[in-house]
Amino acid sequence: MSEQAIQAPAVELPEFARARVNLADASLGAEALACSDEFFADRQRMLNPDPAVFYPDRYDEHGKWMDGWETRRRRNGGHDWCVVRLALPGVILGVDLDTSFFTGNYPPAASIEACCKPDGEPAESDWQLLVASTSLQGDSHRFIAVDHDNPVTHLRLHIYPDGGIARLRVYGDPWCDWSRKPADQLYDLLALEHGARAIAYSDSHYGHPMRLFRPGRGLNMGDGWETRRRREPGNDWCILQLGHPAVIERVELDTAHFKGNYPDCCSIQAALVTWGTDESLITQSMFWDTLLPEQPLQADSIHSFTELASGIGPVSHVRLNVIPDGGVSRLRLWGRLHRGEEGA
User: Fold this and answer.
1) Is the pTM of this model over 0.70?
2) Which residue range or ranges hold the Allantoicase domain (predicted)?
């Protein structure tokens, strides 16, 4: 008889976590570099992007198998710690210390330090306090908003004195130092590493638009933006912010794995936005200039478009229209940086 896994229930995310990147996502490249101890459970499990699971009858040579990072019981004073290199440098808005399924073995408290060391390993003097020592509860999420404007590349999680953390999630905006990048090269301005952001969307029933920015092709039909079946007039859309204003030269739209549910057509509108709020862009975007006129799409294919509308100039935001609904795996906008005033 196969093991039956119990999955942690979904929780409502706070504002700082919605439409933000989990910078501690192992599938994006985050790595737990070192720790004081991992006797019961490997530190890397803590960075798994999937919800934690529990197998009631699973044991290994060290004892009960747990889905997270777990240290042995301390008998000599002190406390345990783990150093994590984030998948991407980013400005952190908040964290989630998730103790799902850790009931009698969770840490009573934890704190987090941070540093920005993009080209090397942190020294002791590099660390700064990010989250002060805070109490934890078993089998629960501890969401903590963070007020820290500087980019971060590494975290050091301290647990007091020992125990297990199912998941460490670090929500923020990827940060790119554009001042060090040549302006005459082509960049994918919707790459996660370049700081792209999803502003708004009509629907995300099967997948959030943030997945459009992930590296590589989609792994499966769940790795993309997909809307429900539209039963009313109109079409679905999402508004995306480029990592930097640019003049777009090529559009690539990938419908990988979407076969019976890809959009019939797509179009893209764009603008160089200099004022307003994220909410106001929803109305503004309906009147933006056309960057890519309506184009037919095919199932499970990469579509490349170079014949874009002329005279549109630099843009900072785009509105992807999928007609009438369906799923898109990835969207790439290749362009050259606009170094002038970001706006008109």
Assistant:
1) yes
2) 29-173, 195-336
